[in-house]
From TrEMBL:
Subunit structure and binding partners: Homodimer. Interacts with FtsZ.
PANTHER family listed in its UniProt record: CELL DIVISION PROTEIN ZAPA
Organism lineage: Bacteria, Pseudomonadati, Pseudomonadota, Gammaproteobacteria, Legionellales
Localization annotation: Cytoplasm
Name this protein carries in UniProt: Cell division protein ZapA
Top-rank taxon, per record: Bacteria
Gene Ontology annotations for the cellular component aspect, listed alphabetically: cell division site; cell septum; cytosol
Pfam family, one: ZapA
Function summary: Activator of cell division through the inhibition of FtsZ GTPase activity, therefore promoting FtsZ assembly into bundles of protofilaments necessary for the formation of the division Z ring. It is recruited early at mid-cell but it is not essential for cell division.
Gene3D superfamilies, sorted: 1.20.5.50, Cell division protein ZapA protomer, N-terminal domain
Record carries keyword Cell membrane: no
Similarity comment: Belongs to the ZapA family. Type 1 subfamily.
Amino acid sequence: MTASKSCTIKLLNKNYDIKCPEHETANLQKAAAKLNEQLLQNKKKFKQLDDFQNLVLASLHISHELISCQKQQEQQRHQVTQFINSLENKINQVVNGNPFAEPQTEG
């Protein structure tokens, strides 16, 4: 069983005590700092928002960033996979004694 630890985070000048696994404390602090930064930016930019609206907007913004990063990571993963497959084909051609054959591409 993972030991839980109480951790205090600060959002919009309010402290919140949250329990989390001890090994996740640093990640929780980083996540809270990112959320707080976005909340403060929203508060400056959209003065008419109440705290709940600000929280929803910040959550959507951070979620959008996450989805964009995941999409970019998936594209990079696909490019690396294609590159590895191309190298593997070239190596196989050389090993099989056909170094000048046209590389096969997978679509």
